[in-house]
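hey
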């Protein structure tokens, strides 16, 4: 459970049988930590989907048997996966930059 919570920047402890969840390190930037962690997880999942699309395009390319229509479709799939991956990386960078500067307090 702690591994899942640490993905989102949270931790859990047991105090007298009651589970208390805290986010961040208690220095006042809990909102920033939580927002960045959630957005990074979402962008990470989307990047994984893009990589899977690239792999599917590669398999389709290899199994096209020289058929021009299948080759074009496979190349387009690979291209769209790469474009999606670039968008995910840029979104990751932009969101982290903006959130860090807006919530810098």
């Amino acid at each position: 459970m702690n591994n899942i919570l640490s993905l989102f920047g949270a931790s859990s402890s047991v105090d007298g049988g009651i589970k208390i969840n805290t986010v961040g390190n208690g220095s006042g930037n809990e909102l920033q930590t939580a927002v960045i962690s959630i957005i990074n997880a979402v962008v990470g999942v989307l990047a994984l989907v893009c990589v899977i699309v690239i792999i599917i395009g590669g398999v389709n390319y290899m199994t096209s048997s020289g058929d021009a229509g299948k080759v074009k479709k496979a190349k387009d799939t690979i291209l769209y996966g790469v474009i999606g991956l670039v968008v995910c990386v840029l979104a990751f960078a932009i969101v982290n930059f903006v959130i860090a500067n807006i919530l810098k307090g």
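The chain has a mean pLDDT of 80. Residues 28-102 form one domain.
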